[in-house]
Fold each of these.
Amino acid sequence: DGGITQSPKYLFRKEGQNVTLSCEQNLNHDAMYWYRQDPGQGLRLIYYSQIVNDFQKGDIAEGYSVSREKKESFPLTVTSAQKNPTAFYLCASSMEESNQPQHFGDGTRLSIL
Amino acid sequence: AQSVTQLGSHVSVSEGALVLLRCNYSSSVPPYLFWYVQYPNQGLQLLLKYTSAATLVKGINGFEAEFKKSETSFHLTKPSAHMSDAAEYFCAVTLYNNNDMRFGAGTRLTVKP
């Protein structure tokens, strides 16, 4: 079955440490997204990519970085510059057309030790 | 810019009762509207979508939503709640492209036995 795989499910970070969250999709979607979810705030867009080797900042990109070297993969790095990284991170993908839904992975919960 | 507002962060119903989750949108052009469901520690699953065809949209698990342009609403309903419906529900809107999907803050549905 096609879908989106996020790993790990749970991740712990020490202060000052960079961590990378993995996102892989086999839906053959061109577009991929990273969201941050905090209680009571819905989903906020961190970065998105419409095509390989190209990506754009979303609403809350500061302290995060991404790469898109392959169509199937869109890893997110949470850098030490992100002062409040504890959150639930969701990766999504979609076809390009705006009437198409986004498909989501099961998320990674990041906590600070 | 488009946006959605979900009225009520928490809704509680008895098993077998009507479920009504409210969503109002704001956009200057006809929107595409989506409802997603999220179970604890999981990603979002698409329930249904409105893409300018029929105004009454039927989705999975017995849910449906009606697009009302005059009221700028897209409320989600289900005639009879089941215990398995307990989850968080998100309304979302896009306009021209999927890169700018805006989510509501979410409504947590509790179903009492």
Amino acid sequence: EVQLVESGGGMVQPGRSLRLSCAASGFTFDDYAMHWVRQPPGKGLEWVSSISWNSDRIGYADSVKGRFTISRDNAKNSLYLQMISLRVEDMALYYCAKDITVAGNYDAFDIWGQGIMVTVSS
Amino acid sequence: QSALTQPASVSGSPGQSITISCTGTSSDVGSYNLVSWYQQHPGKAPKLMIYEVSKRPSGISNRFSGSKSGNTASLTISGLQAEDEADYYCCSYAGSSIPYVFGTGTKVTVL
């Protein structure tokens, strides 16, 4: 079964850091680009960051650029999101998602994790 | 990058067809045939319904169809069913610098 499981969320104070992880199983992880998408409580989806299958292409939303770093470890079938200088507006449910296209350009998000909550509050 | 514009809500009776629009710009929807649509039920993760404007992933009903004209993409749900009641989001590739932009979301209500 194709599965993505996020971990590492929790409650932090503004200005602190957090590292999210996403464990992948059921597919050849290093064949696919991976993505992070977030959803603030009661609001819509917001794309956060993407990384190509071999990490040579990385993109960030303007709202997180310079503060968040996406990375992957293909040997461990894992995706990461390092978040520093967290702000109240970063509070959201964070999803990792798999790209639908094998070893190609970015396309669509066909498999999603269950999401992990990040709460930023003093 | 601004969010793509969707109607806040669309409703229809069982069996009817509805269409959700998704308006972007010549930098995103208008430039790439990489528009996707996601269905999200309350408390659940989003589910891919349409990708590359009009393709359906395996297992998605052919009642769901997608199209694009200029800077506007559309999702049509035909033969509306109670289980189609959910939030729907469009998403477009927007270039290598900031690859993706989501739509504002549309709540579909089955009357």
